[in-house]
Amino acid sequence: MSDPLGLIGSGGGSGGIERLHGLSGPGGAARGPGGPVGAGAPNFKDVLLQNINEVNKLQQEAATAIEDLATGQREDLEGVMLATQKADAAFRALVAVRNKVQQAYEEIKQMRV
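RESULT FIELD:
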């Protein structure tokens, strides 16, 4: 299964969660959230937009697969089901990230300065 949000680490180096939260520096060395960002390190906005585009692409592919199945241009029901489930899982993960960001924003709004 693909990881549309890039949250699953790819082996020995820094994991996706650390990268998403900015907790690992170049070469996988841990750093604090306020530490310097390495050259070429993507910011949260870029990663989020990239993942939104990936989810959109998966949803478009699923819609195309459903249309092709309905019109008879495609015969493999399993492939259509797989594309639909991939798009659904990616969308649910994106909604979960959105909910966490929204929850964090609400907590920050409640902080006294």
